[in-house]
Specification:
The chain has 23 helices and no strands. With 465 residues, the chain is mainly α. The relative contact order is 0.18.
Length: 465
């Protein structure tokens, strides 16, 4: 596409502002400041960073809402509200009181180094920046016409540079700006569509039944899997990092409840935009690009630029957050537990980790170029491994050593094997059973068979059980 000079200038100013805000480092050089902002995250900042980092796969939302209508809200909205509220009411305060810096630290604390390393594998999968590397690459490809692979690499390098210096504080500072821009951009396009095309009530009456159906024509089994994938919230590394960084447990609880309210508003806005895209655009429009094409066709010069930086904001806020979390997991939690790296600071290990995970993320984005597929695959494999050990530890009822190690190996392996060998055809599995179910079912079996004995951990950090 060809952008007007004014729109290009708006996007360029946005990128410069983000870089300037993110690159400016706080005076403190402690690892606590770099990893969790010295545990000084206030309520407004907590809400803004939590909300803005939850929508990185905006092109996946474009694809799904345009193709399946309000089912987008059922799959990518409702489950996360349910589990988000559950986290706020049942988990947030307990998790904050643990005084840890990352989710694998909980595993090390209760189960030892080997369990922590196993958990780190699945945390790296959940926090993988690959879906957002791909999304940013697709955006650059659309805006400036660069080859997709080149766009992926350039977008990734930019995101690394501005968080490399400041760590989590840089992520939070940029997230506050991006929070405002993402809501503003979608509000603008909805207002213009309502005035220039048709109002939402008239739009609803013109939609086919498929787009007004809660299932969007998909099977109930498929919808239910996505609901359980919403339990991702309970073990999401970014969610946990922000909770650990709050000033106190009450901020964590109240902030999540506020965030759920903002999620609902933004999901309404993006789903409605997808319905407009379905109605307004030609049927041969690439659905993953529907939001972009809609902005190009309906918005005047200047407002196009504002809408596109809203889309960029949703992606960049999540990409930088997941890059940092993955860097912490690989650098501090994995490499930091090895003797040969024991003399290197946690901050330096995190930086090395970020470089490594971005290289892997680039390869994954090129290998599997579908945002929704990446979400589905990563969640299906990692959630069954992490869910029970994490929640039981936070509840101060940790699993037994044997059961936790089995749970970190067998459920994800079951899901992987089902992915590989249970395909009936390109779209379905044996008996309609999605890979998530063998994973979570095997976790329940492990809990019932191997977790009966009462066991209290000694909370060591450096010994192997």
């Amino acid at each position: 596409m060809t952008l007007h000079f004014i729109d290009i200038s708006i996007i360029a100013v946005y990128l410069m502002v983000v870089f300037t805000i993110g690159y400016t480092r706080n005076k403190s050089r402690s690892s606590s400041d770099y990893l969790v902002m010295g545990r000084k995250l206030t309520l407004p900042a907590f809400v803004m960073t939590l909300v803005s980092t939850w929508y990185g796969g905006i092109l996946g939302v474009s694809e799904y809402s345009t193709s399946y209508g309000i089912s987008n809200w059922v799959i990518f909205g409702l489950p996360y509200y349910v589990f988000g509220i559950a986290f706020a009411l049942l988990v947030a305060k307990r998790a904050r009181k643990l005084e840890v810096n990352s989710l694998p630290e909980i595993m090390v604390r209760d189960y030892g180094r080997s369990a922590g390393r196993l958990a780190s594998i699945w945390v790296l999968l959940l926090a993988s920046p690959a879906p957002y590397i791909l999304t940013l690459g697709l955006l650059l490809n659309f805006f400036v016409g660069l080859p997709l692979n080149m766009s992926i690499v350039l977008g990734t390098l930019f995101s690394l540079v501005y968080i490399f210096n400041g760590g989590f504080s840089s992520v939070v500072k940029t997230d506050r700006l991006q929070f405002v821009l993402m809501f503003l951009g979608f509000l603008i396009i909805l207002m213009v569509l309502s005035l220039k095309y048709m109002n939402p009530i008239s739009l609803w009456s013109t939609l086919p039944p498929s787009h007004r159906s809660l299932t969007g024509g998909n099977s109930i089994a498929y919808i239910v899997v996505w609901f359980f994938i919403g339990s991702w919230t309970l073990v999401d590394p970014g969610f946990h990092q922000r909770v650990y960084a709050t000033a106190n447990p009450e901020v964590a609880k109240r902030g999540i409840l506020w965030a759920v309210g903002f999620w609902f508003i933004f999901d309404f806005m993006t789903t409605l935009t997808g319905l407009y895209a379905f109605s307004y655009l030609p049927s041969d429009t690439i659905t993953s690009q529907a939001f972009l094409v809609l902005g190009q066709n309906i918005l005047p010069v200047g407002l196009q630029g504002l809408f596109y930086i809203a889309i960029l904001s949703t992606v960049m806020s999540t990409l930088d957050s997941n890059t940092l979390i993955s860097g912490i997991t690989l650098g501090k939690d994995v490499l930091g537990g090895l003797d040969r790296f024991s003399k290197i600071s946690e901050t330096s290990l995190t930086k090395y980790g970020m470089i490594a995970v971005l290289c892997v993320g680039i390869l994954m984005a090129i290998w599997l170029p579908s945002v929704v597929s990446l979400w589905y695959t990563f969640g299906t494999i990692a959630i069954p491994a992490l869910l029970a050990p994490t929640l039981l530890s936070i509840a101060n009822r940790p699993m037994t050593p044997i059961s936790v190690k089995l749970n970190l190996i067998i459920p994800p392996l079951s899901a992987i094997l089902w992915f590989l060998f249970a395909k009936v055809d390109q779209w379905s599995y044996f008996w309609g059973i999605e890979p998530f179910y063998p994973g979570i079912f095997s976790s329940l079996i492990i809990l019932s068979l191997f977790n009966h004995t009462k066991w209290k951990p000694t909370h060591v950090n450096n010994s192997e059980r």
